[in-house]
């Protein structure tokens, strides 16, 4: 489950920085690589910082595993994928550059979805095909 950051409660406690570690099930519809699936959950380690204007910066990393058929030879393949997470949230609606949040709570779902999507490789290759491409 993807947690929320309760900005109102944290600023009332004068706690302006923190870390989050959690796992969540990725959306299988994000995969554009044929015959590929997520193997297990996405693991996230995030750090957040709340600024005076109630803007919230979220940074960190995600890691997950892809499994399926090699995009080149169709043999079984598996790949460990890591990606970065970078997002800035402002009170109100998203403006195309920053994420928005309402009612004092930052919902990280859209940022996590975007981070997984940007971390996905263009294709899944088995070890033999990876080696062949390097030569």
Tell me about this structure.
The structure is a single chain. This protein has 135 residues and is an alpha+beta fold. It has one domain. It is built from three helices and eight strands, in the order βαβββββββαα. The protein has helices at residues 7-12, 109-119, 127-134; strands at residues 4-6, 17-24, 36-38, 42-50, 56-69, 76-91, 99-101, 105-107. Strands 2, 3, 4, 5, 6 and 7 form a six-stranded mixed sheet that branches. A two-stranded antiparallel sheet has the order 1-8. The mean pLDDT is 94.
Offer a few descriptive terms.
single chain; 135 residues; alpha+beta; six-stranded mixed β-sheet; two-stranded antiparallel sheet; 19% helix; 44% strand; elongated
The N- and C-terminal alpha carbons lie at a distance of: 42 Å
What is the CA-based Rg, rounded? 18 Å
Biggest sheet overview = 6 strands, mixed
Low-confidence stretches: none
Short summary:
The chain is an alpha+beta fold and 135 residues long. It contains three helices and eight strands, in the order E-H-E-E-E-E-E-E-E-H-H.
Q: What is the secondary structure topology, with strand pairs?
A:
Blueprint: E1 4-6, H1 7-12, E2 17-24, E3 36-38, E4 42-50, E5 56-69, E6 76-91, E7 99-101, E8 105-107, H2 109-119, H3 127-134
